[in-house]
Amino acid sequence: TKHVIKNILWTTAKNFTVERGRQQIEELISTWDIHESWLHHSEFLEEEELKDSKRYHYRACWGIPTRRKPIPQATASVYFVIVISKFKPDTTPVEVFYRLESSRLIRRPEQCQFREKWLKDIIENKIACTERL
């Protein structure tokens, strides 16, 4: 069976605001197949002005709080960049990329389905690293 990659309809460059970007990232996250025990918060980090584009950086920080440990032992971050081209018409949808905190691999939501395992791997590695210390 073929995996269906879920994506959302991204706003156009002319309708983009920092808050709209955060809301759309939340909308994208809601399409991900992640167990309900995972909680996250998302935040805007910075705006970056480049020669050919403007980039808006966001972060979603993930963890699994429990009754015994309401503050998770470790968290995993996913970093998002929303790119608005200075050369394309402002009716063009924004471009969106994301990467995991432990990786340099940049992914596009329309090309790659997010996997819960990636978050688990980051947290397990962090816990193993702190236990070694």
From TrEMBL:
GO annotation, cellular component aspect: cAMP-dependent protein kinase complex
Coiled coil segments of this chain: none
GO molecular function per UniProt: protein kinase A regulatory subunit binding
InterPro entries, alphabetized: AKAP (IPR053084), AKAP_28 (IPR025663)
Name recorded for this polypeptide: AKA14 protein
Organism encoding this protein: Chaetorhynchus papuensis (pygmy drongo)
Taxonomic placement: Eukaryota, Metazoa, Chordata, Craniata, Vertebrata
